[in-house]
Amino acid sequence: MEAPDKILAGGDGELLAIKPLDNGKILVVVYRECEEDGFVITAYLTRKINSLNQRQVLWPPQP
Fold this sequence. Notes:
This protein is mostly beta strands. It has a domain of 43 residues. It contains one helix and five strands, in the order E-E-E-E-H-E. Strands 4-3-2-1-5 form a five-stranded antiparallel sheet. 6% of the residues are buried.
């Protein structure tokens, strides 16, 4: 995914890239970074923003 709105910490070292879509859903791409490479684990659409808001925001830095 290019230009996610934010990146959240996952539960076991994975990262979650979040991008709201025009239809009110949120695209979540779960991925892992390894040294100079990375790979996508899964991606899904959701409307459940509350569970995502409970995760630690890694990017952009929060004031």
